[in-house]
Every structure is written in C-alpha cells, then in structure tokens.
TrEMBL record:
Keywords: Signal
Signal peptide segment: 1-24
Keyword Signal assigned: yes
Taxon lineage: Bacteria, Pseudomonadati, Bacteroidota, Cytophagia, Cytophagales
Protein's name according to its UniProt entry: HYR domain-containing protein
Length: 652
C-alpha cells in the first residue's frame, strides 16, 4: 500500500513540474504583428491596462532593428490602435527593471518613432506627434534577451488635449524648490470636458512638483461624467526655476610647487558647505528663563534646486601670476540661473630646488689651472619661477687634482633654498712640457763609466718650474680668493724649461757613457710631466774624467749615490768637481739625500748632517762606512742604515 501511495505522489509532482514548465514557456497571444493586441481606446482616446496585464515572457522576435534600439528584436509583443483625434500621444510601459525597447510603426511597417535607454529601467515612454485620425498603427514592446526579463508589465496609452480646453501651463518653483497646480489652472473657463454640470468631476493625478520635475511633465486629468463614465486626458505642465542662486566666496592662497603652475579647484574658493554655527549657551535676558543657544547660518553658495556648476574665470595660474589675482567666481543652477562675484587668489612660488648635473672633464691650461663651469654641467635643474644660480664647491683645479674628483653641484634659488648633488670632474693634462736645453758637464766614475740618471742639469729651468711634488692644496676653493694668488708667478717666464703641471723626469738618449765619450757629446734631452706628456730637444753634454785627488772638505750639492762624482763639490752650493770622499775628507750633507751603496768599506774623517730647506738624509744601504773622528747631526736630519749596511765611528 505504501508503494502505491508513493507512486501516486511521484506522478502528481511530475505533473505539476511539467505543467509549470508549460506555463513558463507559454507564448503570448500578441507575439506577432498579425496577432497584435487591439487597444480599446476610451471616449477621449486613452487606454490604461490593468496592472501587470501583459508579458513578454516566451515571446519571440523577428530580428527587426529600429533606429534608436541597441539590439535587434528578440523578445517582442505587438499592439495596434486606430489614431484618435489628438495632437500628441504618449505610450508608457511599466514593469520590472530590465532593458526595454519601444517602437511605433504604420500599417506599411514604416518606423515612425523608437526609443531605448541602453540600460535597465523600470519604465520607458514613447512620444509622437502627427498621427492621422482613424488610421491604424502598431506599437512594438521588445525585452532583449541579453538582460533580465521584464515580467508582467502595464501599458498606458494617452492623448494630449491641446485643444480649447487646455494649453501648456508654466509653473515657477518657489524659494523652497516647490510648486503646486490646481485643475482650474490647467483647464480654460469655457471647457466643459468631459461634461457640464455639478454631476461631472475632474481631478489631477499629479498636482505637486519639485526640482526633480524641471522641464515638461505630462499630467493625466481624470474626468467622470454624469453617466458614471470615466474619461482620461493629458496636458502639459512646464516646471521652471527662475530664482538665481546666492554665492559666497573666500580669498585664498595657492602655491606653485612644481615650478610651472598650480590649479585651483573652484570649490576651494566658493563656499558650498552650508550649515549652522551654534554659540555657547548664554543667560536668557528674561530672569529665571535659563540659558539660550543662538544659531547663525554659515555663509555659503546655495540654490532652491541645487547648484550644478561651480566655476572660476581662471583656474590655472603660472609664474606670470605671482601675487594677487582678481578672479570672477560663478555658480549656475539646473535651470541656468547664475550668480557671480569677485575673489582674490594670491599665488606664491614654493617650488623646492632640484639639482641635476652631469659629469665633466676639464683640462689644465698653460697656467696650470683648469676651471669647471657649473652652468655647463647643469643637466636640467629646477628651482621655481625666479630661476636659480648654479655653483660648485670646487671649481678651480691644478696638477694635484689630476684624475677623478667628486664635487658638489649646488643650486640656490632666489629664496636662499639650496639643493645639491655629487658629480665627477675628471682633470686631465694634455699639454707637453716646454723644453730649453743648456750645456752641462758630467764626470765619469772611478770605473770610467757614467749613467745619466737625472738629466736635469741639461735643462734650463724656469725659476718657478715645479719638479718636486708640493703639498696637496686641494685646488682653488670659491671663497673669494683670486686665481692669480694661487700660483703667484707660475708660467710667467719664457725661454726656459717648464710645464703647466709638474715635471716628473729628465733623461737623455743615450744614457750611458764611457771614457770613449770624453769631451763634448750631442744628446737627445727628454722632459716628461706627471701625465706622461713629454717633449725632447738636442743638448750638449761634456764628459770629464774622474778626479782621483783627495779633498779635505766636500759638500753634497745634489741628491744621489755616495760614489757618484757628480754630486760632490768643494764648497757649499758649488758645482760638482768629479771627486768622491776619501779618508781625509770632511763630508757635509745639507738639504740632500745621499745613499751609501758600496761593496766593501770606505773611510772618511768626519760626517756632518745639517738641516736644510729640503730634507737631509744619509742612508747606509750596502757596505761599511767608517768615520775616523765623529758624526755630527744638527737639526731635523735623518741617519739610518739597513741590515746589510754598517756605520762605524773609529777614533785613532
């Protein structure tokens, strides 16, 4: 028995499901033009369907495309009517929010009008003027399948009574954005529609209007005749707003921060946030009445229907507008009513400077200096409206700066604001030394040989020629010093050997000589600077024999080796005489560096180390130096020996 009831329940549920599906896909009776629903227009050419009377569910479409539609017909129902005696008709469709497309065609299927919003709406309306009374027309309601179905919808067909009964009525809104019409405002005195007498009644479906109704509004008039018949008519109410807005502004300051312009928002100038300002509670003037709080409306721009446009006559300000600018502020409401006033906008330039620079290479000139130009190194720096000055924390360079130097590139604007970035300035020297030779003589050593290690004697030197590396002065700093004070006499002399930087080496070709070269020899003299630039000229070198005599007193007049006869003279600052110290010699070294490199041993009488303008040094590197009497060290001098060098004082 249970199985029987279960089977019956299953069959009943299946029947309900199949029945619901059949209803869901039922095709509307007015699915095509041939089966269009005939609108039964009333006595005055109006038709109001029951709410939700029609549906497009299950409807088909013939793919027709009308001019104002967004897509071809895909879910359409049709209506037909005979045109009433009217100047204008209004067709309204109301349903669920969906895509709605409407079209009006004549009996020849020619389009007269069409409309479509292009987005989901709950209602759509089609208006047309110029129908021929008594002729047949068709209305197409299409619900595109791309969107939600419209479901059940209501259709309204109204005509517009532009007759002796009614004319378009203009309603001006009040200061609160409100307006009201009465039936007598819309119908003329001699209008007896729908009938005359006290038995007839007339009423409006809409009598109150607001800012949302600005423009044309088609209003339905409902009339009931003496016989109880209901009539509908349509008239036009034009809602207007003639009240201009009020405007309130404030003077403001705007800052240029990008070096070019600033944009001002009208709402930063026009006061648009309305409200009330409350006071602190104060005693009521009436004794015993407590306290009262007063309220004051905040000044602002306002309108009875709201302001649509906030505008300034000028919103973009550039460097040409620095200072005060008189500008016109303007507000416009929905109806085009406007109000204007003047306002002052003061423009300031607060652009922060930005330093951008590129690396550079400078070359030492003949005077030994190189100058870097900050303006040529500028690579797009900015500093606001008034411009800027560019500088370097170091702009003058000398031979001490050869190579890469990291320097600060500085931008300073007219307000004293600074910005900087680091750049590399490469200092190079491409000028060759100037060389002028002079005759010189040199002595062979005791072995009859000569190796020219320093050919400076063959060069006629300028008195200010730089040969020894000076202390690193770090170049010229832009602190007000004069460039001509940096090197007082550098490169002022002519007819002598010099360089714009520092001379590093003198040498000859050939370098080695023997007794076969005694007498005058023409050699090639070379001079190079510290950048490797070099030049050469011919020079006369006289080779003299070694002097074997023993001198009682000798002075080192050059730096060099102990056994080099070209560094010793018999008097201070004298010329070399081609001898070397012997057992009876008193040796004086002042402002020179002498290296003792001898196989075996050498004896002298006395050694005096004296402080000079240049360092004084005796370095016993190889061999043994025996001093018979004493070694004297006066002042800041250096006496040193290596592990294989030996210094002895022997008193006989």
């Amino acid at each position: 028995m249970r199985k029987f009831y279960a089977k019956m329940i299953f069959i009943f549920l299946a029947f309900l499901i199949l029945k619901s599906q059949a209803f869901a896909f039922q095709i509307p009776t007015n699915d095509t033009r041939q089966t269009a629903f005939q609108l039964p227009l009333g006595p005055n050419g109006n038709y109001f369907s029951k709410e939700g009377q029609f549906s497009a569910n299950g409807a088909s479409g013939d793919g027709t495309y009308y001019s104002r539609w967004g897509s071809r017909a895909s879910r359409s129902v049709w209506f037909k009517f005979k045109a009433p005696a009217s100047d204008k008709i209004i067709v309204t469709v109301e349903g669920q929010e969906s895509y709605i497309q409407l079209a009006l065609v004549n009996a020849k299927d020619e389009e007269l009008a069409s409309t479509a919003f292009g987005y989901p709406v709950k209602s759509d309306q089609l208006l047309f003027t110029g129908l021929r009374e008594g002729e047949e027309y068709f209305i197409v309601v299409d619900n595109p399948i791309e969107g939600k179905p419209i479901g059940q919808f209501t259709l309204k067909f109204q005509n517009y009574l532009m007759t002796t009964c009614t004319q378009p009525y203009v309603l001006a809104l009040d200061a609160n954005g409100k307006g009201r019409v009465k039936i007598d405002d819309l119908l003329s005195e001699d209008c007896y529609w729908p009938c005359a007498g006290v038995e007839c009644s007339r009423e409006l479906t809409k009598s109150n209007f607001s800012c949302n109704d600005l423009g044309e509004n088609y209003v339905t008039i409902k009339g009931v005749g003496a016989n109880g018949t209901t009539y509908y008519g349509t008239t036009l109410v034009k809602v207007v707003d003639n009240i201009p807005p009020t405007i309130a502004v404030r003077n403001i300051r705007a800052n240029i921060t990008n070096g070019e312009f600033v944009k001002v928002d009208p709402k930063n100038v026009i006061l648009w946030r309305c409200g009330k300002i409350d006071s602190s509670p104060s005693p009521n003037p009436v004794p015993g009445a407590g306290e009262t709080q007063f309220f004051q409306e905040r000044p602002c721009a306002k309108d009875n229907c709201g302001i649509e446009l906030f505008e300034l006559s000028k919103t973009t300000f550039t460097c040409n507008d620095l200072g005060e600018n008189e500008v016109i502020a303007r507000v416009v409401d929905k109806s085009g009513n406007e109000a204007t006033t003047k306002v002052i906008i003061t423009i300031y330039d607060l652009t922060a400077p930005v330093a951008k620079a590129k690396d550079a290479t400078v070359y030492l000139a003949a005077n030994g200096l190189a100058k870097a130009d900050a303006n040529l190194m500028d690579d797009g720096s900015t500093a606001g409206c008034a411009g800027y000055n560019a500088s370097l924390n170091k702009s003058i360079f000398d031979y001490n700066d050869l190579g890469k130097n990291e320097v600060a590139f500085i931008v300073k604007d007219d307000r004293g604001n600074l910005a900087s970035t680091m750049v590399n300035i490469a200092v190079e020297d491409t000028l060759k030394p100037v060389i002028v030779s002079q005759p010189a003589k040199m002595y062979l050593n005791e072995n009859g040989k000569l190796e020219v290690r320093d050919a400076k004697a063959l060069a006629k030197l300028c008195s200010d020629a730089v040969i020894v590396v000076r202390e690193n002065w770090m170049g010229f700093e832009p602190d007000g010093s004069r460039e001509d004070e940096f090197f007082q006499m550098f490169s002022k002399q002519e007819g002598c050997t010099k360089d714009n930087a520092q001379i590093s080496e003198f040498w000859t070709e050939p370098r080695e000589f023997t007794s076969a070269n005694l007498g005058e020899n023409e050699v090639d003299l070379f001079v190079s600077d510290m950048s490797g630039n070099y030049t050469s000229t011919k020079a006369k070198l006289t080779i003299l024999p070694f002097d074997t005599s023993c001198k009682k007193e000798l002075w080192a007049v050059k730096s060099g080796d102990w056994n080099d006869p070209n560094i010793w003279s018999n008097k201070e600052n004298g010329e070399a005489i081609g001898v070397v110290p012997c057992e009876s010699s008193t040796v004086n070294i002042k402002g020179q560096k002498v290296n003792f490199v001898i196989e075996g041993e050498v004896a002298v009488k006395t050694v005096n180390l004296l402080e000079g303008s240049e360092p004084t040094e005796l370095y016993i590197q190889v061999g043994s130096l025996k001093v018979k009497e004493a070694i004297s060290e006066k002042g800041n001098v250096t006496l040193k020996q290596s592990e294989i060098g030996k210094l002895e004082v022997i008193k006989e």
